Amino acid sequence: MPAEIDFCNAAELLPLVLSGIRARGDQPEVLVLDLTATSFMDSQGVRLINDVRHRLRPGTQVRLVARTEGVTSRVLELTGLRRDVPVYDDLAEALAS
Q1: Could you read off the pLDDT of 35-72 as tens digits, one per residue?
Q2: Are 34 and 91 in contact (CB under 8 A)?
């Protein structure tokens, strides 16, 4: 995911994520969104993640990777999304769980 997710680019990211899923040819059982490079995210980033979740096949698990310290992790916590979607410290951990 990009360095910033906000009102300027969130709407453009949804079709990119969904086309990446469709390019695989099938719905994955698990989708991991790597936010470690994302240093800024506002409520539009949360909305993007929720929009992706709701467009996936029922039962598909969404996992996030975010740095423990920083704005992105704080936004996930403050909005309550962290309760609904597992957040991991690194990509290997998210893939292994």
Answers
A1: 999 999 999 999 999 999 999 988 899 999 999 888 99
A2: yes
